[in-house]
Design goal:
The protein is an alpha+beta fold. Helix content is 38%, strand content 20%. It contains eleven helices and 14 strands. Helix 1 packs across helix 9 and helix 2 runs antiparallel to helix 3. The longest helix is centred in the middle third of the chain and has 32 residues. The structure holds zinc ion (ZN).
């Protein structure tokens, strides 16, 4: 199971390029279920890795990167008929190898060789993903599961909590419907909020079915929540409140720690510069940093710098499809926790 700490560690990783180290990120997007017999994606995966090996050799990179690519090729070779998505992060120069099974929503099968791990496919997948619990309830029992990405585990701890609470239910006879409601009510007390429901046979439902049904409820919830919150951010930005739009203002808000949620058009990409000394990001292509005066370097896509920041700081990240208002506002917006430029009076009042 992929933990938040692991994701944060990946986001913070920086390969020592002076030593020839390279951060390898590999994503495998499986074929859709109806095409799985063709095994097209598994073949693509092998080709992608072989191609990367070829160009590594051509560039004289025969050391640790070659070893990593060999190992990824082995993984790719075993992906025939693999129904889940897969991600590998490797940098043997830093003794790092991480392999994860993920939901099959990673976009495309690709390999990235950079100084930092490429986390966009991962961020799109889990940026707004809450820890989810699934309660299956009928009149006789309640079963509980934790779902984190594609990893579904039955949680016995809550069942024990429920039985220790000493509630006795009328399991038999005409009291049945009432009992089911009581089991459900008590079960739901353990959760912050309910985001959706589905029907299933509690006794016979398979793990696979629970995971698929819960994932589909979760996905609709994330899409809806992203759209609603983006509109909220855009309206607040217009009112000069807790929202900002456009790259320049979003980068400023990131640096002042104001950002709570970040909204990007699905295919968002923009040039920017990053200070090689203090890390300051600037939407203007300036040669020297406004914060410390040191030289900047050009970023082909500012998302590569924004995404690790969002992951490290637990900023909720939404990729949106077809959001006309967001398009008009520069394809990027943020909802803020506070506004540093409007908070001064409040801070003084607290201090006095
Ligand atoms: Zn600087």
């Amino acid at each position: 199971m992929m933990t938040r700490d692991e994701i944060r560690a990946l986001a913070a990783f920086q390969a020592d390029e002076t030593e020839g180290a390279c951060a390898l990120s590999f994503y495998f997007q499986p074929d859709p279920p109806q095409d799985r017999s063709h095994r097209r994606e598994a073949i693509v995966a092998k080709d992608v890795v072989k191609q990367a090996l070829k160009s590594a050799v051509a560039q004289g990179k025969n050391g640790p990167l070659h070893a990593d690519l060999d190992r990824v090729l082995e993984v790719a070779t075993n992906l025939h008929g693999h129904a889940r998505g897969k991600a590998v992060f490797a940098c043997s120069a830093h003794n790092l190898w991480k392999e994860f099974d993920l939901p099959p929503r990673l976009g495309t099968t690709r390999i990235y060789l950079q100084s930092q791990f490429q986390l966009k496919p991962l961020a799109a997948l889990l940026g707004a993903q809450p820890d989810l619990s699934v309660a299956l309830v009928d009149r006789q029992r309640a079963r509980f599961f934790d779902l984190r990405l594609d990893d579904l585990r039955e949680n016995q701890a809550i069942v024990h909590m429920l039985s220790r609470s000493g509630a006795s239910y009328g399991y038999h006879g005409y009291e049945g419907g009432h009992a089911e409601r009581r089991v459900a009510e008590e079960a739901l007390q353990h959760f912050k909020r309910v985001i959706g429901r589905f029907s299933a046979d509690v006794a016979s439902v398979s793990y696979e079915e629970i995971r698929d049904r819960a994932n589909s409820v979760l996905n609709s919830w994330i899409v809806e929540r992203g759209r609603t919150k983006a509109s909220e951010a855009l309206n607040l930005a217009k009112a000069n409140g807790r929202g900002v739009t456009g790259l320049r203002r979003v980068l400023q808000a990131l640096e002042t720690g104001e950002v709570q949620s970040l909204f990007l058009n699905e295919n968002y990409s923009a040039h920017a510069v990053a200070c090689s000394n203090c890390g300051h990001l600037d939407a203007h292509m300036i040669p020297t940093c406004v914060a410390c005066g040191k030289p900047t370097r050009e970023l082909a896509d500012v998302s590569d710098a924004i995404i690790p920041i969002a992951i490290r700081r637990d900023i909720e990240l939404f990729y949106l499809k077809d959001h006309a208002e967001l398009d008009r506002a520069g394809n990027i917006a943020a909802l803020l926790r506070f506004r540093s430029d409007q908070n001064r009076t409040g801070q003084i009042a607290t201090a006095s």
